[in-house]
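Section 4.2 – Deliverable D4.2 (structural model, holo form)

The reporting period included a commitment to supply a predicted holo structure for the target in complex with adenosine-5'-triphosphate. Inputs used:
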Amino acid sequence: MKIQSPAKINLFLHITGKRDDGYHNLSSLMCCVSLYDTVVIDITGTGIAVTCNSSEVPENEGNLAWRAADLFFKSFKQMTGNKGTGVKITIDKNIPVAAGLGGGSSNAAAIFLGLNRYFGNPFAENELMDMGLKIGADVPFFIFQQPALASGIGEQLKPYYGIKKQPVMLICPMINVSTAEVYKNLDLGLTKCEKKLKRILLSKQVFDPDRHLCNDLETVTELRFPEIASIKDALIDNGAKGALMSGSGPSVFGLFTQESIINKAHRVLMQNKKWRVFSAELLINTGYRILDT
Ligand code: ATP
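Output (structure tokens):
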């Protein structure tokens, strides 16, 4: 089974508070984009093995896909008594790692969805999402597979219908951002996206880049890495209708309205050899494509 595992962006990210367990509560508008890793699943006798073509990604139980398979098999065994199943997972990485694009969580969701399909859908979507949450806060969103307004730590999801399919450019600079550091340096008294959240909720669910794009973590990462602001400027100068950092960064995305404009911008911006530039589109209906089943 071969699964296309998409990246996500946060079109909106407001951090509402810190919880006792160390997680943060948030309100976020999340959408998948057509930049994919390929995850191949081979069902074998026993054990879980992961291989990945990126040196930045662990191939042991530190891999979120490994952990997803382990949890799936444990839950499946509990449900059916079926034991002794294993899987060989091969990940072909295209999504930049630790970049705010959710690649690891997406791979974990691909494993849940793929194994569930292989074994005849023993678990309902909400059960898979509960399992996903144990692996990471973004995993339930990927299992949900549609644009969503997320709250809680990201696990409470409501479908959002106000986004249309449109071209999006992702630019990932070669800087290392630690998500933990970003949250540590976030001053909750200085966050600025709350007003825009009200606008989104009152806007009859039509997303407007001019009025709605906002990320509370951007100020923190941008202060430490001014290159984030340069990327946003470059996207706007080359025709993007809006630009924003995704998650805790360092990836920045730009929303475009026309193929011809994004194509031209791509040719210009890919000249900067310190940036990885991807042209994609917002995914409205499907996140995952399961091939060769
Ligand atoms: P976060 O904000 O949660 O750190 P991210 O979207 O910025 O997530 P990911 O690409 O998911 O970044 O990687 C985060 C970390 O998870 C990396 O340090 C990476 O080594 C580890 N990791 C574990 N499994 C995977 C996987 N399958 N793909 C990518 N990274 C993985």
